[in-house]
Amino acid sequence: MATVSVFSRTFRVKFKSSSAHFIRGIASSSRLHSHTRSLKEFSMANKVAAVTGGARGLGNMFCRAFIEAGCNSIAIIDLHEQEAETAAKALIHEYETAGAVQRGELNVIGVGCDVASEKSVQSAFGQLQSRIGRVNALVTAAGIVENFPATEYPTPKIQKLFDINVHGSFFCAREVAKSLLGHGESGSIILISSMSANIVNQPQLQTPYNASKAAVKHMASSLAVEWAKSGIRVNALSPGYMMTKLTEKVLEENPKLKESWHTLTPMGRMGIPEELKGAIVFLASDASSYVTGSEIRVDGGYCCV
Ligand SMILES: NC(=O)c1ccc[n+]([C@@H]2O[C@H](COP(=O)([O-])OP(=O)(O)OC[C@H]3O[C@@H](n4cnc5c(N)ncnc54)[C@H](O)[C@@H]3O)[C@@H](O)[C@H]2O)c1
């Protein structure tokens, strides 16, 4: 079957022509335009959001989804302050230039933070209230993946992966919860897990990553129960294979993987970051007010087979 190039905000992606029409529709329907009607429960107006790993990839798409759902106050938290600030300025410029927001309406800031370091997380979240307000919608998208056979996986790399993916999610969730609990306010925390929390990816070897994402998923359930009566909801969002720098790097090292990924995914293709916008806004907004401790999988059906 012929392949067709489709432009997503993040990547130019080649799809089989049967999927291309549909994907092109998603990518273009997410271009900026005004909506006349939508469910008010999905509005992110009056929410204050923080997204770790927001300088690029899925995290950056979550920031875009929040802006398009009405959110005006967002902190992009990422490892390098310069990249976080550049991404923040780029979003303001893009939405203002497109006329999707008024000039000065968006307060998007970039904050440098290593989520693996508790001190760095405390310092980053400590400055948010005075700069954007009290965070009541947190997404922890900062994460890494590496592929090694278990017997050859360097131990310091395993520790680093768990420090970022697992401890990083915990440190950030805890800072936001402490602030909300201290003021008796409600909020929504979304931990980015992965379909790898539920299945074992093949053929690439990534046991520590899979285990880290299973830990993140169960962390969401555990924190959800711990904070349920205080109005803080915690859920996990688990993507399947999505086209970002993270998967691009894996595919560069092993280009043959792509065909296996397509074959193993019932929908026969990878996802594009835009396809997570609905799920993230649902979980962050009041549309999911009775949803806590859940996992939403957005994986093209991967976990069903
Ligand atoms: N892309 C996929 O197919 C896919 C699938 C399932 C789950 N996920 C998860 O989604 C999340 C985002 O993935 P992505 O594809 O956008 O990856 P990405 O590599 O494109 O982006 C990750 C971001 O996290 C930041 N980051 C890395 N280490 C950090 C640290 N110590 N402190 C702060 N920021 C740090 C990076 O700078 C980068 O901006 C990850 O947790 C990943 O495991 C991705």
TrEMBL record:
GO terms for molecular function: mannitol 2-dehydrogenase (NADP+) activity; oxidoreductase activity, acting on NAD(P)H, oxygen as acceptor. Belongs to the short-chain dehydrogenases/reductases (SDR) family. It holds the Pfam family adh_short_C2. Gene3D superfamilies: NAD(P)-binding Rossmann-like Domain. Keywords: NADP, Oxidoreductase. The lineage of its organism: Eukaryota, Fungi, Dikarya, Basidiomycota, Agaricomycotina. GO terms for biological process: carbohydrate metabolic process; small molecule metabolic process. It comes from the Eukaryota. This is Related to D-arabinitol 2-dehydrogenase.
